[in-house]
Structure formats: structure tokens, C-alpha cells
Amino acid sequence: MSGIERYPTLFSPLDLGFTQIKNRSIMGSMHTGLEEAEGGFERLAAYFTERAKAGVGMIITGGISPNEEGGGSKLSTAEEADQHRIVTEAVHTAAPDVKICMQILHAGPLAATAKAVAPSAVKSRISPVTPNALDEDGIEQQLNDFANCAKRAKEAGYDGVEIIGSAGYLLSTFLVQKTNLRNDQWGGSYENRMRFPVEVVRRIREAVGNEFMVIFRIAAMDMLDGGMSWEEIVQLAKKIEAVGANIISTHFTWHESAVPTISTRVPRAAFSGVTGRLSKELNIPTITSNRINMPAVAEEVLRRGDADLISMARPMLADPEIIQKAIDGREDEINTCIACNQACLDHTFTGQEISCLVNPRACHETLLNYEKVSQPKRIAVVGAGPAGLSYATVAAERGHQVTLFDAADEIGGQFNLARRIPGKEEFDETIRYFNRMIEVHNIDLILETTVSAKMLVDGGFDEVVIATGIEPRTPEIEGIDHPNVVSYIDAIKGNKTIGKRVAIVGAGGIGFDVAELILHKGKSAALDLSVFAKEWGVDFENHPRGGVTGVSPQIEMNDREVCMVQRKSTPVGRGLGKTTGWTHRMSLARRNVKMVNGADYLKIDDEGLHILLNDQPQIVEADTVIICAGQTPQRALYDELEKTGLNTSLIGGAYEAAELDAKQAINQASFLAAAV
Ligand code: FAD
Ligand code: NAP
Ligand code: SF4
Fold first, then answer.
1. Is the pTM value of this prediction over 0.85?
2. Which domains does the chain have, with CATH numbers?
3. With 163 labelled, which of 94, 251, 505, 655 sits at a CA distance of 20 to 30 A?
């Protein structure tokens, strides 16, 4: 069965009267960091064109501000429109049937500028600046700037604009009482608080005429304590429809809210049901989004009638060909977004250009290319973890003859441990993808073979790549060989019994994952919406204000006392991902995990873990002490090979173990394999 037959709803067109979207897939808006970079528009053109050529129905660009107050890259002048034309012309030339809309994002109080404006001078918890309260003239100016920006977008060749009315950005701060303290016509009653966003849409429609898409992104569940009620959301959506929007796109958070909405611990398509409720209230099409990362999920959501269009943002980074592969019936070749945020949102929120952990070419389409080779080499890759798999795949795709070895009986390396952690089930997809790539590119896979230097020397290879990963560090603590001490590998694999009282030595990413695993009970929240809802205190059915007001999280957990210890004096968990670290910290705090920083290790014995804290000896009483104290590179094989004169490279954890993660391992391997 072809992909088009399998996903008939996804691949049906949407008729808006004056224009058609050829199928129901949208590449959602993402800020890339290229908007501000030197030569960024040319790079953006290559990035979007690659996706446009691969079947997506419509693209929505990253957010562009209507003025300086809105923060980030702006579009208000003819010269700026010329820059945008580089993108629109490239996309329309490469794929004339694909639509591209520009998102207008006025960050309001979240704009990192002293010029930031808002309905009232209310500082956001997550912003360093207090915004300037707008006066009547200021409001008029902002409205004109929105209309002007949309007009410029039309001039620049876009097919429409999306206005973001959620996330804690300007428009949404008018809607909510805690950020709108005004008592003039722009504040007070809900009718007044709605006035600004509604007026933005009305003026934009007036400025661009009827044959130009106007999409409004609404916070359909803002996850704020005291946020918008369901009735207010419906009222706003209806007003927005009445003043001329063509499509309502649903969004599910303010950046400051305390519920994860897109990370890997969120179930797939978790929020589509909310869009479904809103769709029933409207006469115009709706877009849903969040954790829809495979075509089958998109089709199911559409078939349920939850939305008319599916926005996939990060999945388009992970695999620019996701839609084409669905069309061709090659879903098993899709490089699935695992919702880690490590190379996309974590980069955005730390001011770096974005990319993708599983696809380092994302946003680097002009810089990293996998060109076919004229003289294939025989290459041996030792280690089928993320580094070795990436190297092998890229080298083989380019035409090299690759043999990939692993001592284990399956590929994946440490990802086989990661995928066992509740909330990290998506890591399975990466292993599935690489298994398929091994078949597609005819990589000779040899498992259950511990490779020696002699085998490689005798093998007649032109190049050898060592990707043998890491060894868990064994810290020098008295009593480290006590029977109660367990390595994180044994703890994760369930090879050793874990007692009721547990001390964890080391509080990095793996320490957090291990704590999550040993406290876990029941179904994984990432796989079951009702468990997720209970755990994070969301009421999807009754939809109280924000979806969360008055709803207490209910945690089901194993009966264990866990204490995590680190030597650093910084708060435990500070080094975790910028956009996901708080979810790990909150999850363990709700499971009463004790966190100790600034400790020195004294010894381990029958009583547990003895530490020195503030110069005072203390005991973390424990039946089991799990060691999560980082890793050291496993490079004995490389050291041996170096002496033989064989062309050898070292990548991944074997190259650098400290602070190494899969993002760096895959990135390093891909760049190296692109050059061999
Ligand atoms: P590895 O994955 O360690 O693979 C090395 C491979 O080499 C192994 O399969 C091994 O069997 C093989 N090998 C070794 N010696 C030989 C030999 N002589 N012959 C044949 N084969 C050999 N990273 C992230 O970025 N994000 C996360 O969320 C994340 N979560 C994690 C959770 C857990 C529980 C763990 C354990 C790790 C996590 N990581 C995460 C870290 C990530 O998995 C590693 O950074 C990554 O796997 C390193 O890749 P690698 O290919 O260098 O090494
Ligand atoms: P890590 O994040 O570097 O943490 C290592 C921990 O061990 C730290 O808490 C460190 O704290 C402690 N440690 C280091 N040397 C020690 C020693 N000699 N004795 C005692 N304690 C010591 O490494 P990891 O947790 O092993 O994770 C490995 C990699 O996988 C990391 O790059 C991590 O980012 C990645 N990962 C990421 C995630 C994620 O969610 N993004 C999840 C899992 C893993 P002190 O030095 O302060 O004691
Ligand atoms: Fe998805 Fe992670 Fe890639 Fe971001 S970095 S697109 S979350 S796989």
C-alpha cells in the first residue's frame, strides 16, 4: 500500500477558496538563529527549500518581529522585505505548489531589550527585563506596526502570515489578568482584554486584502495557574474568525508554565484533543501541534477530526524528508524527532543557531553535505553506538564500503540504556532508524564481536574509525567494592537488586535518569495521557483556567527513599538541558528525592554512604549505593592501532567522555564522515 493510500487524510488537499494547501502537513514555526546570522537568509532558503521539495504542504517561518520593541529579527522596511524574498523565491521556484507563511512574533515582555513593551509593566518570571507599559499612542503604534509587517510580508512574496497570540508574548499578555492590569478600553473586562489581539488581526486583514492567508496562533490551553478559561478561548477564537482569520492554530503553553508540553516525556499528540474541542466551535480550519512526530500519528489525529492541519516543527529538523518518505511508503526510513530539545530549543534559549541531535545537517544545509565519492574506500567502524552508527551511515550513503562492528548483540550502544528510562521511550526510534539505514546502505554489520587491533590490521581496511564509547568511572571511595555498590549499568538493566533506601553518587543526566527509573511505578507518563495528566496536574476534560488551576499533581511511585549526591556546590541538576532540566528536577522533587551538593565522599559501608558536608561527617543511610559518577573514554584499541600506522580516527565517547552527549557524538561523526 502506498503512503498516500495509507494516510488518505494527511494527503488530501485543503481548499481555502482563494488558495489551496496541497496536503495537511505543515512545517511549524521555529526560530533558527539564522534570521540574525551573516548570510542567514541564503542559509534559510536552503533549509526551507530542502523541506519544500520533500512534500510538505505549507511552511511557517520562524518568528519575525513587526518592530524593534518586539525583539529579534524584524520586518518593517522595503530593504528587509528584499532579504525575505531570497527565501520566498527559493521555495516557490523549487516547489511552486508549496505555501510559505511568515510568523509575526512580537515577544512583548519576553523581548530581551530595554525597549520591551506590554499592556502593563509586569515582569515575566523568565525574563530579565520589566517591560514598559504601553500608553494609548504606543498601542496605536504597535497595531500599525503589525499591519505594516504583514503588508511587507506580502510584498516579500509570502503566501500569508501567522500571528502568534500565545506563549507569554505580547498578544497573550493582553488576554490574561495577571499581565494586564489596565482599566482602559484595553484592559479590565475580557471584552476589553481581547481587544488588542482582535484589532491586530482586523488591521492585518485590512492591510493585506482577502487573498492572503492570515493564521492566528491561540493559546488553547495556556497551562497557567489562573490562565484563560475555556469559554474565553472559544470567545476569542470566534472573534478572530469574525475579523478575517483563515485558520486558527492551537498552541499549548506560555514559556513560563510548569507543565512540559513538547519534551520527550509528553505523550505523542497529547494536546490534539483540545484542538478537537475548539475545532467544533469554529467554521474555519484549525491546526494542531505538539509531539506529532510520525505520519501515522498525524493521520490518526486528522481522522479523529481533531484538526484540519498538522503542524510538525522539530520532526522537520530531524528529517527534512519525513513527508516524502511517508508518500513513498518508507516510514521505516524516517529519522524520528525524539523530542530531546538538545540541539533545537536548548540552542534557541541559549542564543545559539539551532540544529538537530539526530540530524546535524538541519540548518547547516549549505555547510554539511554528504556528497557521493568517486573512489570508495573500505572503512571499518568499531562501535555501533550513536557515534559509530552516524559515521557508518553517512560514509556508506556517500558510497564507501563500510563494515560496522559491535561487541554487543544489538546496535545502539548507550541508547539501549537510555531507552529503558521512563519518558525516554522515543530513543527506540533512533535505533530503529539506524537498523534500517544499515540495510538501506548495505553496511556490513558484525555483532557479538569484540574487535582487536590485529583483526583490523589483517582486515585490509583503508580507514578505521574507533567509536568504542566509554567506561563508567569508578570513583576512588573507600568501600567502593562493598556488595551494596551497584553501577548505573546494572541498575538500569535490572541486573542487581536495588534496596528501599538508595544513595546515588553523581547527579548528572544519568544520575537523574537512574533516580527516575528506580522510583517509577505503573505506566510511563510518556505513553499514557491519563498518567501524564495526573502526574503534571492537567485536567483535559473540565479544562479549568489554563487547564491546571486547582488541579494537584498525583504521583504514583515506588516505595523508596532516594538521595542524590554531588561534590559541586552548584544546585543539583543545574547542568541539565536548558528547556528540559526543570522537568527532571520537578519530577524528582515530587518524588521526594533528597539532593545534596558540596559533599566530599568518605566511605561506603553497611550503613550507607558517608560524606563530609559543611565540614561535618554525615551518613546517607542506604541499602544500595548506585554509582553515576560520569565516564572515561574507552580507547585502548585506538592507542594500540596508532602504533600500527593504520589510518585511524577516534570519535564519540571514546574521543571525549567528559560531558559528552549524543548530540556531540553524532555531530562529530557526521562531519568526519562527510569529509572522508
Ligand atoms: P556508546 O554509545 O557507548 O557506544 C559504544 C559502542 O562500542 C558500544 O555499543 C560497545 O559495545 C562498542 N564497543 C566498545 N568496544 C568495542 C570493541 N572492542 N569491539 C566492538 N565493539 C566495541 N545523551 C544525550 O545526548 N541525551 C540523553 O538524553 C542521554 N541520555 C542517556 C541516558 C542514559 C541512561 C545513558 C547511559 C546515556 C545517555 N546519554 C544521553 C549519553 C549517550 O547515550 C552517549 O553520549 C552516547 O551513547 C555516546 O555514543 P558513542 O557512540 O560514543 O558510545
Ligand atoms: P555528567 O552529566 O558529566 O555527570 C557526572 C556526575 O558524576 C556529576 O554529578 C559529577 O558531579 C560526578 N562525578 C564526576 N567525577 C566524579 C568522581 N571522580 N567521583 C565522584 N563523582 C564524580 O555525566 P553522566 O551523568 O554520566 O552523563 C553522561 C552524558 O550523557 C552527559 O554528557 C549527559 O549530558 C548525557 N546525558 C544527558 C541526559 C539528558 O537528559 N540530556 C541524560 C542522561 C545523560 P561532581 O563532580 O560534582 O561530583
Ligand atoms: Fe527533535 Fe531533539 Fe532534533 Fe530537536 S534536537 S529536532 S527535539 S531530535
1. yes
2. 10-317 (3.20.20.70), 378-471+632-675 (3.40.50.720), 474-521+557-629 (3.50.50.60)
3. 94
